[in-house]
Amino acid sequence: MTNNLKIISLFFIIPFLFASTLLAANKKPIGAVVAWTGDVYIYHEGESQGAKVKGMEGIYYQDTIITSNRSRVKILMKDDSILSLGENGRLVIKDYLLEEASDERVSTFKIFAGKVRTLVGRVFRGGKSHFRVETPTAIAGIKGTDFIVSTTEGESEIVSISGEVAVRNISPSIPDEVVLKPRLGTKIQDGMSPSTPAEIPSGRLNALIEETSIPVTAAIELREAGCAGCHEKIYSAKLRYKKQHLETSEQCQICHIKDLAVVREIP
Questions:
Q1: Helix, strand or coil for residue 217?
Q2: Which class would CATH give 3-259?
């Protein structure tokens, strides 16, 4: 690595470490920003002033992530899941617990505005485990790995890209549930049951994917160590990760960091 790249790498890592230090007394990071474009802000619990994303910022329990117009952000969680929030979005880390020893993960994210694509990295089989994305009108629980949630005032749309997604109204008084198979979608209005699952036209599906896509920003770390180098920054166990992905570097192109070829460096 050249001296220039080393300097850039330090500028990349320092903001993340500094943010982690500020909250270390009470919390540990549960994820990190690995890509962003435009103006993205993180509001930590109890703070009225958001911090503008400038590097690999730590993500903490009950953080609120906000994207401005023509802005996007990609977040890597400790359980290897990916959240990609499109423009004009507001996402809250409502609940998060990871217990490797008991093979349990409890994850609940709530999106109040915009679109979020969720790629679930691992399956946890502990009895209390669940992974959910809530909107003001709906709850989407994963039975698969990859889906998109879009919400506007009074209505939410959930689309499955791969695997299955169970969807119901957020109100317990409306028990009806539908299960989406790949390329199927449903809409839920306030106070209503989910609509009958219907196939999403290719144009609409491609638009949703494009609106929640962003190239990985961690260019140097990924070039140096592949996927494991990025995961290591948020305390994901390197040995466990390599056990799951035996050919880590080759897997980058087909894993959730498949857009590695279009990376941009931190100024």
A1: coil
A2: mainly beta
What is the rounded distance in angstroms from the CA atom of residue 111 to the CA atom of residue 223? Answer: 32
Give SS3 for 261. Answer: helix
Using CB atoms within 10 A of its CB, is residue 219 exposed (0-12), middle (13-18) or buried (19+)?
buried
Three-state SS for 71-99 is: CEEEEEECCCCEEEECCCCEEEEEEEEEE
Domains of the chain by residue range: 3-259
pLDDT tens-digit map of 213-264:
876 544 444 444 555 555 544 434 434 444 444 444 444 443 444 443 333 3
Of residues 167, 231, 221, the one with CA closest to residue 193: 167
pLDDT tens, residue by residue, 122-169: 667 767 778 889 999 999 987 657 889 999 888 999 999 888 899 999
